[in-house]
């Protein structure tokens, strides 16, 4: 049975909540360049106006790993979910919610329910993996926040 790993963090943005949400959910095939994964590939398929299927090929541990993710958008709540359908973290789900701080700033509340498909993960190794996963995802969103600011979204 997979090990459940929960973690969360917040990331500040120097743009309004609506602008941050729109920028963050404008899925493009070249988004991986922003995340520091230049040799990754992504296929974006819009199923409905609020449902997106992402098929990605990403480098992990010197091999290319294929993943499929189902994204559900909730624009009225400025949130979305990402559920891994395939890949090493299949059935993991991530929740993203943009919160308005004032007219020109906002922040992301990120919540992870990561399923690690390794048997007998010790409590110590689970704690180390939780810290590593949270740092990795937090670092990705730090880079995205800088890109959002650099692009001067909404101005």
Helices and strands in order:
Elements: E1 3-13, H1 17-24, E2 41-48, E3 51-60, E4 63-74, E5 79-84, E6 93-100, E7 106-116, H2 123-150
Antiparallel strand pairs: 1-7, 2-3, 3-4, 4-5, 5-6, 6-7
Could you explain the architecture of this structure?
With 155 residues, this protein is α+β, with helices and mostly antiparallel strands. The protein has one domain (3-150): Alpha-D-Glucose-1,6-Bisphosphate, Chain A, domain 4, CATH 3.30.530.20. Helices cover 23% and strands 43% of the residues. It has 2 helices and 7 strands, in the order E-H-E-E-E-E-E-E-H. The chain has helices at residues 17-24, 123-150; strands spanning 3-13, 41-48, 51-60, 63-74, 79-84, 93-100, 106-116. The protein has a 7-stranded antiparallel sheet with strand order 1-7-6-5-4-3-2. The longest helix has 28 residues, at 123-150. It is globular and about 50 Å long.
- Proportion of β residues? 35-45%
Mean pLDDT across residues = 90
> Which strands sit side by side, in order, in the main sheet?
1-7-6-5-4-3-2
Rg = 16 Å
What gap, in angstroms, lies between the N and C termini? 49 Å
- In the CATH hierarchy, the architecture is 2-Layer Sandwich
Number of domains: 1
Helix content: 10-25%
Topology as a string of helices (H) and strands (E): EHEEEEEEH
Uncertain stretches = none
Give the count of helical stretches.
2
CATH homologous superfamily label = START domain
CATH class: Alpha Beta
**Largest sheet report:** 7 strands, antiparallel
The count of strands amounts to 7
Structural class: alpha+beta
Shape verdict: globular
